[in-house]
Structure formats: C-alpha cells, structure tokens
C-alpha cells in the first residue's frame, strides 16, 4: 500500500513534471475550446438580437441558431449552400465578409499567443510541454467545436458545405497559429516546422539566402505593407465616392430591399461587414483589372460591360454604369501611383535612416544603403505587395450561385500582377530618387573639412577623405557618404559569404557527427 501511495503524482517528485505537462495540455485544449466558443457565441448573440428586433420574423429560433453556426463557419472561409426553388441543385454561397473573419482570427491569435507564453515559462521544477504539442492541443480543442458547429449547421435551407468547411476551417486555424508563432518566437519558430523543411532550405543557393538575409526582408515587408495599406485606403475612398455619386440609387435599393427599420439595420450591418471586401474591389478597380459581377462581365476603369441582374444590395449601388470609360474613370490610375510612391518613401527612409542631423553617417551609425541594395529591396517589396493583393483579392470574391452568378469580385492573379507591376514601375525609381535627394541634402548639411566640402562624393582623393602623407605617416581623412556606401556594400557581401560558409561548415559537421562511427 505504501508503494502504491508513493507512486502517485500527488506525492512523488517524479510525478510532478507529468502532472504539469498534463495541466499545460489541458489548458491549451481549453484555450482552443474557449476561442471557438467565444466567436460562435458572439455571432449567436448578434443573430438573436436581430431576430428579436424583427417585427415579423419569418424564421424560427432553430433557424436563427443554424444561421449563427453557418455564419461562424463562413467567417473561416467555408462555403454555404442554399435551396433554390424549382431546382434540385443547391446554389453555393462562397462570398466571405472579411470583417466577419476578424473575430475568430483575433480570438485564435490571442489563444495561441497565450499558449506560447505558457510554453516559454519553465516552471519551478521542470520544463513545460513542447510548444508544438501545446499548439496541437489548442488546435484539437478548436476543431472539436468547429466539428460540432458543422454537424449542427449542415442542415436547413441555408446550410454549411461540409467539404468546404473541412478544408477552410482547419486551414484558417493553422495559418493563424503559424503567423502568431512567427510573431512571438521569430526565427525560433522554425524549430516547430517538420524535419523535411530545413533540408529544403539547405538546398537554396547561398547567394539567395544572403540576399534575403539581414534586415532586407524586414525592410521589404514593411514597405510592402505600406503600399498595400495605401491601395486599400484608396480602394475604400473609391467605394465611398461611388456611393456618394450614385446616392439616389443607393437609397432606392435600401428602401426597396428593407421596408422597415429592423430590416434596414440588418442590411446596413451586412454592408458594414462587406466594406473591407468593397475596399479590395475598389483597389482592383484602380489597378486596372477591375472586378466581375457575374461570369463574362468586367467592371474596370476602361469600361463596364453588361452583367446579369445582381442582388439589390446598397453597397453595389455605387458600381459604374455600363459603357466605355471616361477621363474621370481613367483618373483612378492615381491610386496605384500613390501606393507606389508610398512604398518608395518607406524604402528610401530605411535606406538613408543611418545618422543624425548633426553628425550624419558617423562611426556610431551604419552607412546608408548602396543604390543596388535600395533598388533590390524596392523590387522585392513590390513583389510582396503583389502577393498580398492577390491573396486579398482571392478572399474578397466568391460565388453567389450557379452559372452567371458563379463569379463575383476581382481576379486574384490579375490583381496581384497589376499591383506588383505598378509598385515596381513607380516604387523602384521612386526609392532611388528619394534616396538620392536625401543623400544630397545630407551632404550639404555635413560640416566642411578645411574648406574642402564634398559635393558629389566622386571628387579628388583629398576631398573624399583619401589617405594623406604627413611626416612619413599615413593618416585617413573623413569618409564621405559615397565611400561609406562602397565600404558598406563590401562588408555586407563579405559578411554574407562568411555566414553562408559558416552554415555550410556547420552542416558538414552535423553530417559527420550523424555518420556511423562519427
């Protein structure tokens, strides 16, 4: 009996780590259940409030609860299907309101961040569970609630599509957890990847890893984010301007679709949830490819073709009239130009943010970027901006039925290609121009040395800080920004080659240690 009592986790020191491990797994699992439950509960409360406020509700309480479950699955990207009168094939509904997706993504992000923070706490006596194990428990709890919601919401006139939900709900959850892990752990999150990923990375050419190393990727990502935000803000402004220009049609559609105040509030709430989608549509319109309102139609600045009848949603009232483009619609080209300038400004600021106004490019500050590096970072930022625009365009559209209603919204690859092209055409030369202007202004502000001020960084050796001989000794004068650029470029190349050689040597030592007899 004493041996049995001594082996329990409550008394044995060796059982305490296992108990803490189980407690961490349980907390992670409960965190996933809580994140899913809070998102589902918030949508349920909103749907029930609208159902109660309706003066003549045409649905029962059970249908309202089914709608809440369907909307929660739709927020993850899962499609819905609705029964169509006089048709044996249900019509798909795959247009996801982007603002609706913010709630479940944010809740899951907070749960994953808390779980990773718990994994980082080693505890007083033993280490915690591995982050990969805790994230797996979190995902299990989240998907358990998602499975229950899918089973409940897969019946009715408007039901969840099981195949779509099984694909997109886990995909959205895994993508959210991956981004959270990368933001919390940084490069340390690479240890959570499958074992085959480092082998694939090891096969990447060393020059490419060197080019993407250091702060280049962070600078390009920041500039791409600035350009993408500028595109979305411009798209939102285009949407609001279109609604203001066609205000009479928008009001008529609202009064026709919603005769009472409760239904108008519901329609306005739906328009609010679709406003980020409309911003992406407006950005695609400004970029040139435009969007479609049904198969075979195109709405762009060069003209709007005929499209099938669409739902009389007030948000669609701002769509341009069918016909060729006008100088007013061609003027929307200022949107991608402004986004490219914003991207160029971000790159140039990081390229020249290397000194103070009193003592630019001193020994305590790194040298400004060479022009090749500035152009490369701007081009890479344009590529990332195109990828982001393509992803958003793909998420902002979808199907609302069969046939002509099977395509709504912008094309992902066309929008991404146009965003990358516009950003590169305006961002790369713009970044070089702003960089040159800022360097010229810094040279004028730099103090002169002995009356010999440097004007262009390519003058004589004495003016550029070359070596001077005094009494048989050699003394180096102050370096100009041009000399600092050349030195920085050489040091960066040498550092990249040394890093790559060190990585190769480490891989060789690891392979030798893993060999038999090593």
From TrEMBL:
Keywords: Membrane, Transmembrane, Transmembrane helix. Residues 445-467, 476-485, 495-518 have a biased composition (Low complexity). The keyword Transmembrane helix applies. Residues 444-518 are annotated as: Disordered. The chain crosses the membrane at residues 24-52, 88-109, 129-153, 165-185, 223-245, 266-287, 327-344, 377-400, 412-434. This is Integral membrane protein.
